[in-house]
Design a protein that fits this description.
Strand content: 5-15%
Number of strands: 5
Number of helices: 8
Number of domains: 2
Radius of gyration: 24 Å
Helix content: 55-70%
CATH topology of the largest domain: Four Helix Bundle (Hemerythrin (Met), subunit A)
Shape: elongated
Order of helices and strands: HHHEEHEHEEHHH
CATH superfamily of the largest domain: Cytochrome c oxidase, subunit III, four-helix bundle
Largest sheet: 5 strands, antiparallel
Mean pLDDT: 88
Strand order of the largest sheet: 4-3-2-1-5
Length: 287
């Protein structure tokens, strides 16, 4: 029995079934990500205006890697172009060209995830250290030439360490909210090419030690939640597009028009994934 409207549009909607389905699905996705964006904005505008970590209730600013985020944005935008080119190649009945563009799209997706993995690792080895005198600083630990991940003050004490070598961050201009004065020593350090100072801190002087993980601050909680959820969508989309590029190509031989429609539906999902990141990057990374 033949399933109706897999190729021809429905008379009531003017769209074939799969296209109706993907638009309904994307509508639910808009509500899902819209809830997270709303939560982030509400947390952002209601947070204290103090400079975190100096003010524990302040909002972290400029702690994310903007160059990496910018590069990943370019990667995803490029993949949006190539998935359209893949669909156009099928419309031109050029299957080899389709496969090349689709493979490039999948490579971009996997590249995005790999880059995001390195970004996550950098955060897991980045710490906020609060001292007994009320001061706070951020930086990477240096333990035998390596930067450990997920350490706490209890971990340090279990290791029997009496002091910690810390590469203390020198805030860059992005760490200061708009209108906030950038200290002269910060300008001087960057002019000298320095982005951190090496210090040795006694463990007895440390009140708390936390990595940049969700439990450290609401900013990191929603950052990891939103980017991880988006990453799952990237992974899911990459799997589907890879299937179309290889195993799923059998349909091209029996029903090329239906196969072309499937690529269009997959491309619509991929455009949505890209669009979410285009909003996520400036909101979370830049604001």
């Amino acid at each position: 029995m033949e399933i109706p409207y897999t190729v021809k549009p429905r008379p009531d909607t003017g769209l074939y079934n799969a296209k109706v389905g993907i638009w309904l699905f994307l509508a639910s996705e808009v509500m899902l990500f819209g809830a997270f964006f709303s939560a982030y904005i509400l947390l952002r505008v209601t947070a204290d205006h103090g400079f975190w970590p100096d003010v524990a209730t302040g909002w972290p600013h400029g702690l994310l890697n903007i160059p990496i985020g910018t590069f990943n944005t370019a990667v995803l935008i490029s993949s949006s172009v190539t998935v359209v080119m893949a669909w156009m190649a099928l419309r031109e009945n050029n299957f080899p060209k389709f496969r090349n563009f689709m493979i490039f799209t999948v490579i971009c997706a996997l590249g995005f995830l790999v880059i995001k993995t390195f970004e996550y690792k950098e955060k897991f080895g980045h710490y906020v250290i609060r001292l007994n005198d009320g001061k706070a600083l951020t930086g990477h630990l240096d333990v035998n030439g390596k930067s450990p991940l997920f350490w706490t003050l209890d971990t340090v004490k279990e290791k029997g360490l009496e002091s910690l070598k810390v590469q203390v961050d020198i805030p860059n201009k992005y760490r200061f909210p708009v209108g906030m004065h950038v200290p002269e020593e910060t300008h001087r350090a960057h002019a000298e090419g320095r982005h951190h100072d090496d210090r040795e801190i006694k463990v007895a002087d440390i009140e708390s030690l936390k990595a940049f993980i969700p439990s450290t601050h609401p900013f990191f909680a929603i950052y990891f939640t939103m980017t991880f959820l988006h990453g799952l969508h990237v992974l899911g989309g990459a799997i589907v597009l890879a299937y179309f590029a290889f195993v799923g190509t059998k349909l091209w031989k029996t029903s090329p028009e239906q196969f072309t429609n499937r690529i269009e539906v997959g491309g619509l999902f991929w455009h949505f994934v890209d669009l979410v990141w285009i909003f996520l990057f400036p909101v979370v990374y830049l604001l």
